[in-house]
Sequence to fold (494 residues):
Amino acid sequence: MYDEREAWLRAIQSKDARFDGHFVTGVTSTGIYCRPSCPARSPHPRNVRFFVTAAAAQLAGFRACKRCLPGASPGSPEWDVRGDAVARAVRLIDDGLVDREGVTGLAARLGYSARQVQRMLQEGTGAGPLALARTRRAQTARTLLEATELPLTDVAFAAGFASLRSFNATMRAIYDATPSELRRTSRGHGPRHDGGLTFVDLTLPVRQPFCACNVFGHLIGTAIDGVETFHDGTYHRTLRLPGGHGVVSLRPALRGVEARIGVSDIVQLPTALARVRRLLDLDADPVAVDDALAADPLLAPLVHAHPGRRVPRGVDGDEIAFRILLGQQVSTAAARTHGARLVRAAGTPIETGIPGLDHLFPTADAVAGAPDEALAYPAARRDTIRRLAGALADGDLDLSVGADRDAARAGLASLRGIGPWTVEMIAMRGLGDPDAFPATDLGVVRAAEELGVDLTARSAAWRPWRSYATQHLWALTPHAVNTIPGHPGCQEQP
Fold:
């Protein structure tokens, strides 16, 4: 019989980094909680308690380890993959919903009472919504303290704390150090102000292995003028945020992703960080994905050649849905042209200080009211785009980070003009479904022909990671979206 505790004990004895993010260990003899891969001496099994989340360990009175920095690790892949109410709640909390709207706002979004949400999260994560939000604030604050030279007051409010007193008390309780003591290791730069935005420089931690080629290549290859641009080896894009707007510049680095993030309101920084991580799929579990896919001899050589492929996602589900409709049955270049035309006609003009970035992608309301010339398609396609815009604007369809994926799929499929390919593509890139599979996609069909197999039948063995299998299949066909221009690490598949 499988014994989860014994498996986890073996993981901490072997310092297995594959379990980082899946659980944390509290050591009763020291009062400290750690990652499974912590380099400190392994604790005696009788002194170990396991917690699903850092928030649960903190509620039990444990402080974060100063060696392995469990609060600085990427988010748990479990909540990124799952589609149930608990996982949706965790994703919404990570996006800052509790800080903006409170627990009642979270409950309303999920369709439960506040008491039910409290109970579900307590049972599923070991901590309630306020404790999870508190941990998120502390993790963001530590990142800003160590990676930037923002004044402590700015760090406190940027991370979502309501006062300096709660900021100081929380950091001491969780990290056994004051913000000033944590700041002494700072290796960052002071904030820069340009175009009405406040910029900070960060290195985003990434689970290894990380193959940046397809995720960056896709974003660069499909970039829409005004919203996105690529130059000097860096991908830039604008962000529509709940309380303003922002811009982000990203480039792959040796052990993560170098990011420069600018926001119109510093309080929006944690939400911007969460959305950038989602854009690049940084919280995926590449070891679990690769192990599962490599079990199929058909995919094994592809996985071994390029381990750690990610799914290029988006910063906004509505935007991704419109972009996929704009790209139906046209070339990548044509889709970019259609997108740029819509952005110019219905997008929100902004100043960013970055050449080529001067618009936010239009909202659903704006797309619904866009003139015919902004949607230069046959009438049937134009009507489909407007039906989608109306459903999103009216709240009849939810494609946000906290959406119920099954309900979203059903809602999309019910709209005339939206077929299985569109539903699967939106599920994969907009909803973050790891098991979406656009079987009729041209790239997938060509891969099937090259491999000489029926992928529809074969793909059942790849569940629940068919979105990641799709990335390997796409890369079999030479295309600009599979590589980063000028990046020496991006090579063709074998």
In short: The longest helix spans residues 129-147. The chain has a mean pLDDT of 91.
